Write the structure tokens for this entry.
Amino acid sequence: MQNLTKQYRHRNGTVIDALSDISVKIEAGQFVTITGPSGSGKSTLLFTMGGLLRPSSGSILFNGQSLHSADDKTLSEFRKLHIGYVMQNFFLVPYLTTEENVMVAVSLSQKQVCKQKEIAWNLLKLVGLTDRAEHYPRELSSGQQQRVAIARALANSPSVILADEPTGNLDPELSAEIFTLLKELNTKKGITIIMVTHSPEAAKIGTTRIHLRNGHIIE
Amino acid sequence: MNILHLVWRELWHRKSRLISGLTTIILGIAVIIGIRTVTTSSEKAVAVKLDNLGANILVLPQGASTDDYYTADIDAPTFPEGYVERIVSSSLQGVDNLSPKLSRRVKIGGSSFVLTGILPANEVAAKPLWQSSGIMGNEIAASCAPSNSQNQSLGFKDERLQRKTIDSLGSGDCYLGFIAAQRLSANEGSRITIRNKEFTVSKILPETGTVDDGRIFAHLHSVQNLLGIENQLSAIEIMGCCNAISDGLLGKMRNILPDTRITTIGQIVSTQIETNRMMNNVSLIFLVIILLVGGVSIGNYMWANVNERKKEIGTYRMIGFTKSGIYMMLLFKAVILGFFGGIAGYIIGTLSGAFLGPQFAGVTVQPIPILLPLSILLAITISVLGSLLPASVAARMEPYSIMQEE
């Protein structure tokens, strides 16, 4: 990211700088944690990196591919193939089973249903939820829902996982499980993890730390 | 796993809203189908009744009185027999069962009778051009009316109302109307003398309750010869299709036969035409209302659905769905709603028509299968049109904003 800015215009006309002149280079295989107080621009930075939010100015390059001016189709393709999202609120589809929630992401790149099922099953095995494959999200605990979200994030073998407060709704024990899982994905599979967190303790997991305040990187 | 699977699962997940969304389409389509089936059955029923009444258009010479439609041909001035050929060769649509006639009053034994010269069906068969237009050849049915078998299904079983044709008639034969036979005390095989020519009574016609009961029917050419009016007619009776009459058939015939008077059973035909027009207008008004109300209702349903599904839409966008993918997903849902709404609307409309038709229109209502694909097409059109804007808004939603709201 080079000289990245993101501005919002408030209803009363004032312009708010959510991100100001952010320049960061993240190498493949890093575990990056982003910390900062509420409103400091952590989530904005994460979503901008992931192609869900367009910057007001500046550039974003992913493996040499420019994202800041890409069209919707290119950005959607980028998210599908390279990015896995893990969110605080899980964002599972309520009317799909655990297996189907993973399959829906797999289906974007794999059209054969039997292959979709096979991939989904292997991912659920990875997160230890094969016994919950036919359950709906409402029938799962918060920790289980987050593990389904992680399995879905891995559906298309992404090179980067963007995690926004992934343990924000979990108790300390389940949080530790999720951190362990993310750490394993980073170390064993070489997936780059970029995680937003409030917790200074959780931030220590990262090999690289970014601290934001008022849209600026201060550390 | 594909878009159809996702749409299907979402529909079942929100069944109560699915039912409310479908109800508007179903009711709208049901109303249109109900009106249409009753109207169509009513039109057929009236067309059959008109057919059973016999000819509904009368071509008379200029100067003929038309005070009484049923006796206008008696003692009327004449016009050339070749006028029949003119009508036949004009290829007018909606003209059927032409029947040339020559009628005059004659005295038999001091009593007055109406002698009517007609052409029997077997002579029509010898004239291919006439046969193709059905002059006296068809037992029943103007081109707009249902067939005889349909007559039965529509409940017209009274044989007296069935239109009769005379298949063959020799130059010395005659048919007697029911009352004429009584007045002459004649039976089948009797001989009667008209102006010194002897005729054999071939048949006594059943009572019809019309002026035909008092007539004596003989071969047209025998009557022309007997009366000394060669190649002349006093009238041509025609069975005209009601719809063709409403579309200006009489005017077209007047252009072909400018020196004649062409009249119709005005009251019956105009009533039927007005009824048909009114029902068609009602259908059209309902169609427009249903399109508007149905479209707005589906639009509202889809708006609510899109708002309710913001989180899902954000999720789909997050994992890689394109804007067009979201758009297609919602329109696909609209197509499914329309498809099932159209089928259900057709079934309910047809059943309602079958139940209410006999009570309100006095007709037996038959299902009209061709309306099923039209119902589905209409319902899908309404549903898709109503969903275009909500789907477009949903597709343009910023996933980041949705995530932040959550």
